[in-house]
C-alpha cells in the first residue's frame, strides 16, 4: 500500500525528521526489505535500530524509530514505542482499504490449522476476486497483523488476516487494528493453554474474534468442536457453521483417501453438493477447506465457485509435506509447530500412508496446561494406530528419549518406511528432517 511519511507521522503522533517520503509497504527485517518499502525498527530479542544503516543502504524510503534514534540520510518518524505506532499505522491503512475490501476482511484463529485454513481461504477467494491478499507465513501477532495490512495492495478486494493468541486480550487488540467482518475459529486445543488456565481459557481468548465482529458480519464456527460451537452466543454477527456433523451449514464428508493421504471430499450446502480434493494430506484439511468454502459463501460466491478453489492452496515448508528420505524412506515434515490436536491429525495422516514400517519422531509440545497428560495421550494414540514413537530429547511420551545424533541408528530406515517428524517450535525438529533427508 502507498504510504507517505507525513501521513504516517500524523497517524502515529510521531515527529517527522527529514523530508517527506513515499513508500509502498513496509518491513521489520532489514534482510528482507525491498527498496520501495519503509522500515520499522522493532526492539525485541534484537534491536531493529542496530540495522537502520543496513535498511538505508537497501533503499528504505523512511523508518519508524524510537525517539532519539534517527540516523543521517534517512527520513525517520520518531515515536515512544514502535510496536504501538505500528498498530496505529496498520489502523490507518485499514481505513484506506475500507471501500475496496467492503465486507471481505477475514480474521482466522484457532489452536491448530490457522495457517492451512488461511491458505485455503485465499485459494477459495481467488476463484471469485481479483486482488486477494493474505498474511505471509504466520505473521499473526502485534507486529505481523499490521504489517499484513500495510503490505496489502491499494486495490485489495479481499484481505485475510491470521490471528495468534498467547493470552487474554491479544485477539481483541488485533481486531482493533484489522477490523475483520468475517471471523473463522478452527478449534480449541491445548496450545498456549498454560497461559490462560486450560481449555476453557483458550476458548474465552479465541472467542474475542467473533465478539469483535460487526452486526452485519459473519462468524464461521467449527461445529465439530463443542467449545467452538458454543461461541455462537457470544456474537451479534450472523453465524455460519461447518463440520462433518449433521446440521452443519457447510458439511464435509471424505469420499476416498488417496495413496499420499489426500482426501477426496464432498461438500454440501443448502441442498447443493460439490467435490474436490485439498492439496495437503489429512481429513483435517477437508475441515479447513470447508471453513474456506463457508467464507466464500459468506462473500456471495456460492458453493460451486467456492469449491473450485479447493486444491489450489499454497503448500508451506514444515506443514504436512512429504519429503524423500535416506534409504528410500518417506518423511512427513510437519515440524512447524505442535499441540495435541495437530499431533493427532498428523499421526492419522501417517497411519493412512502405505509403508513397511511407520515411525513418529516427536519432540516436546510446549506451553500446555497439563503436559504429562497430553504427551501420554499422544503416545496412546500412536500405539493404537500401530506407530512406533521415537522421542527426541524428552521423556514425556513415556519412552526412553533419543539424542539427535542417535536418531538414524535408532530408526535403521529402509525403503518404504514412513516417518512423521513433529514437535513445538522450541524443539527445533527441523534438525531431524535435515538429518533424515540428507539435505
The named CATH superfamily of the largest domain: Mur-like, catalytic domain
Which CATH C-level class of the largest domain is it? Alpha Beta
How many helices? The count is: 17
* Major beta sheet, strand line-up: 9-10-8-11-12-13-14-15-16
How many domains?
3
What is the mean pLDDT?
95
Residues in β-strands, percent: 15-25%
Q: Spans of 5+ residues with little confidence (pLDDT < 50)?
A: none
Q: How many beta-strand elements?
A: 21
User: Which fold name is given in CATH as the topology of the largest domain?
Assistant: UDP-N-acetylmuramoyl-L-alanine:D-glutamate ligase
CATH architecture call of the largest domain: 3-Layer(aba) Sandwich
SS content category: alpha/beta
C-alpha Rg, in Å? Answer: 23 Å
Largest sheet: 9 strands, mixed
Give the end-to-end Cα distance, rounded to a whole number of Å. 38 Å
Helix content: 25-40%
Shape: globular
Question: Outline of this structure?
Answer:
Helix content is 32%, strand content 21%.
How would you summarize the topology of this molecule?
Layout: E1 2-4, H1 5-11, E2 15-17, E3 22-24, E4 26-27, E5 38-40, H2 52-57, E6 63-66, E7 76-79, H3 82-96, H4 98-101, E8 105-109, H5 114-126, E9 132-134, H6 144-150, E10 158-162, H7 170-178, E11 182-185, H8 193-196, H9 199-206, H10 208-211, E12 218-222, H11 226-229, E13 238-243, E14 250-257, E15 263-269, E16 272-276, H12 283-298, H13 303-307, E17 321-324, E18 330-333, H14 340-352, E19 358-362, H15 371-384, E20 388-391, H16 407-411, E21 418-422, H17 430-437
Parallel strand pairs: 4-5, 5-6, 6-7, 8-10, 8-11, 9-10, 11-12, 12-13, 13-14, 18-21, 19-20, 19-21
Antiparallel strand pairs: 1-3, 2-7, 14-15, 15-16, 17-18
Amino acid at each position: 500500500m502507498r504510504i507517505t511519511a507525513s501521513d504516517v507521522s500524523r497517524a502515529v503522533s510521531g515527529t517527522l525528521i527529514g523530508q517527506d517520503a513515499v513508500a509502498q509497504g513496509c518491513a521489520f527485517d532489514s534482510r528482507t526489505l525491498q527498496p520501495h518499502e519503509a522500515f520499522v525498527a522493532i526492539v525485541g530479542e534484537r534491536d531493529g535500530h542496530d540495522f537502520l544503516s543496513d535498511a538505508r543502504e537497501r533503499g528504505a524510503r523512511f523508518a519508524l524509530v524510537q525517539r532519539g534514534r534517527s540516523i543521517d540520510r534517512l527520513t525517520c518518524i520518531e515515536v515512544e514505542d514502535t510496536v504501538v505506532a505500528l498498530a496505529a499505522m496498520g489502523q490507518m491503512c485499514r481505513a484506506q482499504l475500507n471501500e475496496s475490501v467492503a465486507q471481505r476482511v477475514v480474521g482466522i484463529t484457532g489452536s491448530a490449522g490457522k495457517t492451512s485454513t488461511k491458505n485455503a481461504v485465499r485459494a477459495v477467494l481467488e476463484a471469485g476476486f481479483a486482488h486477494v491478499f493474505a498474511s505471509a507465513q504466520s505473521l499473526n501477532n502485534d507486529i505481523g497483523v499490521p504489517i499484513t495490512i500495510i503490505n496489502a495492495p491499494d486495490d485489495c478486494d479481499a484481505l485475510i488476516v491470521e490471528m495468534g493468541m498467547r493470552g487474554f486480550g491479544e485477539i481483541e487488540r488485533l481486531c482493533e487494528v484489522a477490523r475483520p467482518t468475517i471471523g473463522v475459529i478452527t478449534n480449541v486445543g491445548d496450545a498456549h493453554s498454560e497461559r490462560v488456565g486450560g481449555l476453557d481459557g483458550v476458548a474465552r481468548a479465541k472467542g474475542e474474534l467473533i465478539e469483535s465482529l460487526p452486526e452485519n458480519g459473519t462468524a464461521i464456527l467449527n461445529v465439530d468442536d463443542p467449545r467452538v460451537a458454543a461461541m455462537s452466543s457470544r456474537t451479534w454477527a450472523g453465524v455460519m457453521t461447518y463440520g462433518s456433523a449433521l446440521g452443519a451449514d457447510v458439511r464435509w464428508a471424505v469420499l476416498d483417501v488417496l495413496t499420499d493421504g489426500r482426501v477426496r471430499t464432498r461438500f454440501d450446502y443448502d441442498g447443493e453438493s460439490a467435490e474436490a480434493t485439498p492439496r495437503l494430506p489429512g481429513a483435517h484439511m477437508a475441515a479447513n477447506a470447508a471453513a474456506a468454502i463457508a467464507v466464500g459463501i459468506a462473500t456471495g460466491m456460492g458453493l460451486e465457485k467456492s469449491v473450485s478453489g479447493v486444491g489450489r492452496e499454497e503448500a508451506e515448508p514444515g506443514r504436512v509435506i512429504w519429503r524423500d528420505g535416506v534409504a528410500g524412506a518417506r518423511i512427513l515434515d510437519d515440524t512447524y509447530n505442535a499441540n495435541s490436536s495437530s499431533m493427532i491429525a498428523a499421526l492419522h495422516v501417517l497411519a493412512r500412508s502405505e509403508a513397511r514400517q511407520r515411525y513418529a519422531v516427536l519432540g516436546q509440545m510446549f506451553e500446555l496446561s497439563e503436559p504429562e497428560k497430553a504427551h501420554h495421550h499422544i503416545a496412546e494414540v500412536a500405539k493404537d494406530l500401530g506407530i512406533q514413537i521415537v522421542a527426541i530429547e524428552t521423556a514425556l511420551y513415556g519412552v526412553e528419549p533419543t539424542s539427535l545424533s542417535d536418531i538414524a541408528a535408532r530408526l535403521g530406515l529402509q525403503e518404504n518406511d514412513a516417518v512423521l517428524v513433529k514437535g513445538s517450535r522450541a524443539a527445533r525438529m527441523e534438525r531431524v528432517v535435515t538429518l533424515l533427508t540428507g539435505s
